Structure formats: C-alpha cells, structure tokens
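Hey, quick one: can you model this chain's 3D structure?
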Amino acid sequence: MTWTPRHPTDLARTVGVLRRGAGDPTFHRGADGSFWRTTRTTSGVATVRYSQVGAVELRVQAWGPGAADAAAEAPVVLGEGDDPASFDPIIPLLAEAHRRIPGLRMLRTGRVIESLVPAILEQKVITLQAHDSWRALVHRFGDDAPGPVPSGLARPMKVAPTAEVWRRIPSWEWHRAGVDPQRSRTIVNAARYAARLEEASGMSPADAAARLMLMPGVGVWTAAEVAQRAFGDPDALAVGDYHLANYLGHALWGRDMTDDEMVEAMAPWAGHRQRVVRLLGAAGVAGRPKRGPRMPFVDHRAR
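Sure thing. Here's the predicted structure for all 303 residues.
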C-alpha cells in the first residue's frame, strides 16, 4: 500500500523512537533506508516494512496473519493523526528547528504492552543494560517474525512475547537477563491486566495515564514513555527522567533544572512539550555538558 500523508513525514525521525538499542530483534533499519518492525495485531503477528517513495509518498508492506491489520494501521502509526497546527514554537531556536524539520511526526502504534515492557526495563538502570535485557528476553521468549529476513540480518526478526508469555517467565530467567525482582514483578503484574491496559489507547491522555499508573511500579515517567509511542501524545513529558530536566534546562535556559522547575518552565508549550523535546534532539541542540555523575552500572545477575 502506498499513500500520501496529509502532513510532511520524515520516516526516520518518526519511527526511529521504536528502536530499543542496537540489535533490537523487533526493529531493523534496512541499508536502503526502509524500516522493519514486528507487532501483534488482533489478527496475529506481523512483520511490517515502511519505506519512503519519492519526496512525499510512504509505502507499507506486511507479512503474516496480522499483515492486513498492520498495513491498514500504517498511516496512523506513522503520524497521520498528529496535527502540529496548534504548536507555537515561541522562541527562535524552536521556530528554526520546526522550520528545518517539518516531517517529524508523533507516531501512534496503539500497542500498550509493546511499549510498556521495554519502558519498565529502562527504569532505574542505564539504557544499555535495559536494551541488553530486552534483546535477551525477546530472543528467548518471542516468536520468529513472519515474512522475509531483512537484508543484513543473519536470522529472522522476533515478535515480542504475548502478555501471557511475559506473565509466565520464571524468576531465574529474569535474573539471567539482568532484570531485578522489582522490575520483573512490575512487568508480570502488568501482563496480568494487559487487556485493561490496552484499553488505554482509546482514552484521553489524562485517563490513559491514570489507567497505566494504577499498576504498581508504573509512575509518571513510565506512563509518558508509553504515551509517546503507543498513544502519539505530543505532550507526554517524561518527568523523572535521569537526564531530561538538565538537558532541557541547558538547551533552552542555559542552566541545571529540577523536575519541578522543568515542568513550570515548559508550561508555555503545554500540549506539545514532547514535540519540543523531539525537535531539540532532531536539531542536534546540545544540553548539559557531560561532566556530572552518571547512573551506575548494576549487574543484577551477580546478586
């Protein structure tokens, strides 16, 4: 299927946020600039390939039992519902970034568990550790992806496990993957209520966040990470992120900030605060100089 989006769409900057580190078995960027993703639809698993055709058209190809659903959802996934018309950059730095990067869209997968599990894995550990855990668990417990193996990969991509499989992973396998008991309990408990959590994709942003945060161990940061990917929320600011407050503080105001100060300072962009973060990153705007303390590496497998 090929279509022309109603807004300019930069495929790489839009869909790239779904990648969970190098070697993510559910995501691959082809040498030709295409992007491959695996997912679970109501009809079954699917492998999806997104590509840019010329200057304005996008194309989707899909394989597997869920192929028809995945193809039909592609425009929404790639930001068809994202409307930046009400975004006011306010300051020249953002106005210039918005002008130079008109194709950055807030994507919307509609898949809660697909975004929630890796977000929980990223709680309170360095990102590389979380990505290692995600890769190990998906390779061990996921399903082989349908369709062709993308060029450059030695083996098939993987589809992330179902909620039922996440729920039944034994404690020693979490330990083996470097996941501590607190994060594994949070994932297992969320998997028990997967059907109720998936309903959040049809709710208002506030109600969706509230539904997610009913789960023990899921707070504002985790809910925002899900909202950025599953719900396409352009306002989902990841309050509580280890780096974000100081990044925005230095990028926009030239100083360190606490989370509370960041939330107050970002008020003029209410409704588009995540769009501001994404634009700054896409434009390569520098944040805090790398001289402060870093989150330590903790090997939970040694415990």
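One thing worth noting: The first helix runs from residue 11 to 15.
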